[in-house]
Amino acid sequence: MDFTQLSHDLATLCRRTAQFISQEAATFDRGKVEHKGLHDLVSYVDQETERRLVAGLRELLPEAGFITEEGTAGPDAHTEEFVWIIDPLDGTTNFVHGLPVYCISVALVQHRELVVGVVHEVGRDESFRAVRGGGAFCNDQPIHVTDVANLNSSLIATGFPYSDFGKLDDFLKILGAFFTRSHGVRRLGSAAADLAYVAAGRCEGFFEFNLNCYDVAAGILLVREADGHVTQFLEDGDPLFGREIVASNRLIHAEMQAAIGEFWQ
């Protein structure tokens, strides 16, 4: 299979679908927002975007299964050779409030290995694309993580807990460690954007917990193909289904894990 061509086709589908999100953003009614859980928002825009993506992906690769955030493709599929992992609108809370950082995130897994990923950042109309072994790109220009060699000179991105606060005290201690040991900490509100920005060299590292596979799948491949490193908090396990993630330019990874490890159990 030509994964490079598939990545271009996927990027085109995501860009076309992002136009629908942009159109809806101009007139969006917050009264139409629903709650899937505590502070976990969903709108008709998420659902319709996912339906459009699923329809387009079925044309691109009819034999593939789906893991989707909103469940519009039917039951989650983990057994097919190929599985699409889709977050139709990563950053829904930003979208609802009119903050322009939200993304479409789509990745293809072959036998649980990430092979293609696209993150389309809607507000900036930026298309981040990666193919396993083929590099990472933003609007078809190659991207690479930074060569900053220490945490003290790094900008770090993170995501705040919004529904599960059981480890909030530990997280706040970790946050404090990064406050005092880096150039600063940013919370964009979209894990897909955070990971894309690490890959593009806009920040050196990103960490967050309680994430789902659809939040991070495409972004993990972007960082790896931009010569970065992605693990779980305290070990080198695969973070795709691990619910926690540390991504970096590789050079500061050990420092990031050490800072987290002081407070995380």
Automatic annotation (TrEMBL):
Keywords: Hydrolase, Magnesium, Metal-binding. It holds the Pfam family Inositol_P. It comes from the Bacteria. It catalyses: a myo-inositol phosphate + H2O = myo-inositol + phosphate. Its cofactor is Mg(2+). InterPro entries: IMPase, Inositol_monoP_metal-BS, Inositol_monophosphatase-like, Inositol_monophosphatase_SuhB. Its EC number is 3.1.3.25. Belongs to the inositol monophosphatase superfamily. PANTHER family: INOSITOL MONOPHOSPHATASE, INOSITOL-1-MONOPHOSPHATASE-RELATED. This is Inositol-1-monophosphatase.
